[in-house]
Write a sequence for this structure.
């Protein structure tokens, strides 16, 4: 059962008395995703004060009479190089009513950039992915030819190209956008569970051989630091309550964890990776009170419940919220941020932060969604979108049924916003790659460095610049230095960059066994293995991030030279000849 279908059922029973609803739904856990929603009846209360360190603001209210509305945005809003926010809405005021691609500025100026007409797709439920080629990619869950949904590329301000029409045999009803993995290509899973790859830059579609072990959750895959792709399913598994799975870029899927109820049930949003390397996510149901939970997955497969949401009485009000639909944001301050769909002081859901340390966690509610957002839209405002950390330091998200009528864009701003910079596309880069860095006041940047290694860059505008990854770059944060009349300010990226190994030449390119060969390139820190024609070198030394000195081993064969690091494998273009 889809998350939205659950809400539709609840809307049908919204006029029941709370006693009757409790009789219908409130039972012991039996595997039904309807569990624990009995008490989510919304009652009007006065708005509660927000947490003192954060300020909630309704940035923009969607209106189905004038444009796009009901932004599910499974995933999260995307910040473009212009500093604006991009997303999708599933309905609109046009004759086709198939949804839009929209843009909204951080201050709330809104524009519909594309109206779907059925042939290009219809009902775009997922958010957009901004890839390293500076283009947006997304999906529409219906429409196209023969009507099973489309995969598209969008170039602002108004160019949309359908890359693939799903036909049922290769998948259908895609709900979430594909994400970019470390090989530079896009990977996704359709609503039917079929996995696929989109090869960039051409946008070539290929169905992968393995399917997800259940109905995929309403959240995109996660490209983790180990190079694997991770996802969840809303159901399936040994208890039919959902799974966590791992997928290779070849499409091979392995179930890592099966939810059973007390440890959570029915994960809905995407996974995220914390600064500790562990994966974090939420389930709508299950946990100590059957109202959802936040979990930690210590790779490969150890699950810890780090917060169970409290029970919800018949008036719909509780302390911390319930039913988290969206995934979590791993922010640059080390905290995880998220939202719940129900509960809280106003019964409309909450916004929260959590700091995980080992298997323990410190949970704090930082805001209640205002009562005005959901009074007319029982039984909830449906915050499907995970929060996005904008480089201005504020968090942004959407609700599908909040605001004045058809959803809203909201912000959550700390009292002292931690300004950051971000990178378009994947955080996996090779030396000499050109990356687009987004942020604020970037026209005043005087220096860019990758983990302390200075990089060349070209100013773009106040909101972006283009930098070249230096050959000596190592894993770490990007730092930009902004110079102004009042002094210099250094701003770091939200996430660490990971440097893929690359071989540019061999010196010498031939020789007998025992020859010392200089392997030149980049990304060599932490090299674990060197081979000559497939034969392992027993002696090698990483001199610098750009140079390895290796001795041609006994038994070496004429062939390519390879270097294996924790980030990947690099193979020489030229052949080393063993004399």
């Amino acid at each position: 059962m889809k998350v939205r279908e659950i809400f539709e059922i609840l809307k049908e029973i919204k006029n029941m008395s709370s006693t009757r609803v409790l009789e219908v739904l409130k039972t012991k856990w039996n595997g039904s995703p309807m569990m624990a929603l009995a008490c989510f009846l919304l009652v009007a209360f006065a708005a509660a004060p927000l947490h003192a360190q954060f300020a909630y603001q309704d940035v923009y209210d969607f209106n189905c009479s004038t444009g796009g509305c009901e932004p599910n945005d499974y995933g999260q809003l995307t910040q473009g190089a212009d500093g604006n926010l991009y997303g999708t809405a599933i309905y609109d005021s046009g004759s086709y009513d198939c949804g839009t691609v929209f843009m909204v500025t951080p201050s709330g100026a809104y524009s519909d950039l594309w109206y779907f007409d059925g042939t290009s797709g219809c009902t775009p439920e997922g958010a957009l992915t901004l890839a390293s080629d500076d283009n947006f990619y997304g999906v529409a869950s219906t429409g196209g030819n023969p009507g099973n949904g489309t995969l598209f590329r969008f170039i602002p301000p108004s160019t949309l190209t359908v890359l693939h029409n799903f036909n049922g045999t290769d998948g259908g009803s895609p709900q979430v956008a594909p994400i970019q993995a470390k090989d530079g290509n896009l990977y996704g899973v359709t609503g039917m569970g079929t996995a696929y790859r989109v090869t960039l830059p051409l946008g070539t579609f290929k169905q992968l051989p393995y399917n997800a072990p259940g109905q995929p959750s309403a959240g995109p895959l996660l490209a983790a630091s180990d190079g694997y792709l991770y996802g969840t399913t809303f159901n399936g598994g040994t208890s039919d309550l959902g799974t966590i799975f791992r997928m290779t870029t070849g499409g091979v899927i392995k179930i890592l964890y099966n939810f059973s109820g007390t440890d959570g049930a029915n994960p809905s949003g995407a996974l995220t990776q914390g600064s500790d390397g562990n994966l974090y996510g939420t389930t709508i149901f299950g946990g100590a009170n059957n109202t959802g939970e936040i979990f930690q997955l210590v790779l490969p497969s150890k699950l810890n419940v780090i917060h169970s949401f409290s029970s919800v009485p018949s008036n719909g009000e509780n302390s911390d919220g319930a039913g988290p639909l969206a995934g979590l944001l791993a922010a640059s301050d080390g905290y995880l941020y998220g939202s719940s769909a129900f509960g809280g002081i106003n019964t409309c859901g909450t916004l929260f932060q959590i700091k995980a340390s080992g298997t323990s966690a410190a949970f704090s509610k930082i805001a209640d969604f205002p009562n005005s957002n959901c009074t007319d839209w029982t039984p909830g405002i449906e915050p499907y979108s995970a929060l996005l950390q904008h480089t201005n330091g504020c968090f942004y998200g959407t609700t599908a049924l909040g605001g004045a009528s058809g959803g809203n864009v909201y912000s959550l701003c700390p009292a002292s916003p931690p300004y950051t910079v971000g990178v378009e596309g994947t955080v996996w880069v090779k030396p000499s790659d050109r990356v687009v860095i987004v942020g604020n006041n970037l026209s005043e940047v005087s220096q860019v460095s990758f983990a302390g290694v200075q990089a060349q860059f070209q100013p773009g505008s106040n909101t972006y610049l283009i930098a070249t990854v230096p050959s000596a770059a190592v894993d770490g944060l990007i730092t930009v230095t902004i110079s102004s009349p009042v002094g210099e300010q250094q701003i770091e990226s939200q996430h660490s960059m990971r440097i893929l190994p690359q071989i540019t030449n061999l010196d010498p390119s031939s020789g007998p066994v025992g020859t010392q060969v200089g392997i030149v390139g980049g990304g060599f820190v932490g090299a674990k293995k060197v081979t000559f024609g497939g034969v392992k070198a027993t002696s090698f030394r990483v001199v610098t991030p750009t140079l390895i000195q290796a001795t041609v081993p006994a038994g070496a064969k004429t062939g390519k030279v390879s270097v294996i690091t924790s980030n990947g494998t690099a193979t020489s273009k030229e052949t080393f000849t063993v004399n």
